[in-house]
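hey can u check if this looks right to u? its 402 residues, i copy pasted from the old doc so theres a chance i mangled smth
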Amino acid sequence: MILEMKVPSPGESITEVEIAEWLVADGDWVEKDQAIAEVDSDKATLELPAEASGMITLKAEEGDAVAVGAVVCLIDTEATKPEGASETSKVKTVEKAEEKVVVSAPQTTSYATGTPSPAARKILSEKGMDTTSILGTGKDGRVTKEDAVKAVPSMGSQGEEERGTNRKKLSMLRRKVAERLVTVKNETAMLTTFNEVDMTAIFDIRKQYKVQFKEKHGVGLGFMSFFTLAVVRALELFPEVNSMIDGDYKILYDYKDISIAVSGPKGLMVPVIRHAENLSFRGVEAEVKRLAIRARDGQITVDEMTGGTFTISNGGVFGSMLSTPILNPPQSGILGMHNIVERPVAINGKVEIRPIMYLALSYDHRIIDGRESVGFLVAIKEALENPTELLMENKIQSALEL
C-alpha cells in the first residue's frame, strides 16, 4: 500500500508551509512517528512525523513552498525493511551528492571560455569588473548576460585573493518576521521613552532567597518574574497600554497575556505567558522555563505564540546597553530590558555605586499618549526599586511561597 503524506494544517489562517529540511533521504526506511522533516510556517517551525513505517519517496525539495493538504512524500508500507535501515540518515544523501560531484564530466574548454557576450561585456564594464573574474555558465564557459547581472564587484583591490560568499534563502518564519517588522515601522506611530532602574533591592532578595527558592520549586529566581509582575501592576494602573488599535476602534484587554521574546534555533520567537495577572513568582519562573525549553527544542506551537497583549524583550542577556525595541503587532507596547552595569549614582547627596539597568518602552502613539507611556514606565521603575512593598506586600517569603 502506498500512503500519501499530506501537509497538516499548523494553525488557523496558515495556507502554506516551506520544507525547511528533510531529515531523511529519498528511498530511506522510516518508522512510524519518526520525524522526517522540519517545515516552516510564517509563525513557527514544526516537525513532520511519519504516519506509517515503510520506504519513503520524497515529492518536494528543501526550500519548496507547499500548500496545506499537498502531498509531500509517499510511504510504501508493504516494502521490505532492509538490513541496517536504522542507521540510514541524511548523511548518506550528502555522501551520494559528493560522489556525483566527483564523477561529473569536466566542462569543455575552448576559445569561448571566459568570453562575454556583447550584452554581458557592457554590464561588466558598467560595474567596473574584469571578465577574467567571472565564471561563465554559457556554452563552453561563455559569460552570459545573466552571469554579468549576478556578478558582484569585489570590495577590495584587483589582484587580491578571491573571497567567497554564501547565499542562503531566508526561512518562511524569518521572512514573515521581517515583513511584520517593516509593517510596524511603516504603519504605526512608534515612539520610545527611556528610564533607568536601580536593581539593588532585587539583587538583595535574590542573594538571600535564590538557593531556597530553587530547592523548593525546582526553578531559579530570575529577573523575569520581577519584570513580569511589575508589568502586570503597571498595566493595571495604565490600562491604555494594554490595548490595540483596530481600524477606528481601540480594544482594551481585561487580562494580561505577556509575550516574552526568546532566541531559538530558528531565530526570534515570542511565546506567551497566559493570564500573568494570576501567577506568582514561582508560576512566572516555571512558565518562562517551560517556554524557553520548548523554543530551544523547536517545539513551540503557533497557539503558544499567538494572542499576547504586551511584550517584554531582554536584550541584556546579549550585552545590550540600550535599544529601541520594535512593537510586536498588533500589540501597542513593548518593554526592553538591558544589561545591568555598576554605575555611579547620586544617593541622598552622595555618590554610590549601584547596579543600574536602562529600560526602554516603545509604544504606538496613535492610542497611547505621553502621560500614559511615561507613567507606565515610572510605575515599572517604582515596583522594581521597591519590590518588597509593591510586588510582595511586605511578605517576601509568602510571595516566594517558601
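The two ends are 59 Å apart (CA to CA).
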